Amino acid sequence: DEISVFAKPEEVELLIRFGAESGLRADSSIDVTPNNIVESSDPDSDVFFIEVWGKDSTGETEDGKYRKTILTKATAACISRLQQKKHLDEDEPFISIGRSSVDNWVPKLGALAAEKTGKDDFEHLTVHDFRAYFATNCLVRHGMNMETVMTVGGWKDYDTMKRYLSVTADHAEEADTAIGEVLDEDRQETE
Does an H or E element contain 189, and which? Predict the structure, then answer.
């Protein structure tokens, strides 16, 4: 019932997944369209990616920088459900709200996660925390190579990445639990 405060629960789920499973920033997440989903160039692979033009924190370009990031099967399934429901055009964003609405959703998600897990720290959730979760999950839990995570996540600075290595597996597990609780609640509301 708590998730019903969100007018578009499928889009809330996708926003979480874009950040937590693909490492997208909020500004990139709200711009993703069906045209941004691409297959691997390897004909023997069933892997898909999300192509985005995102923030260039180096200041080298004004238009942002191009990157190709991971599209998980769970995110692809969420996209498929949303696509079937909304019948989007190829250039129509999956997430139909603006950045200020995204910023309004996240504290509500944090409050819900805090309630579900009993961890008050989630009350301070920010949209960037999903991206941090992505980096930590890739580096700490899955043992991915730092350069690979930096490439798919769009990071250029090793010092930024090092802070994600300091998170323990226990903390990553707590975040998994919170995200799972929120997403499970979200799916129950939409079924």
Answer: helix 169-190
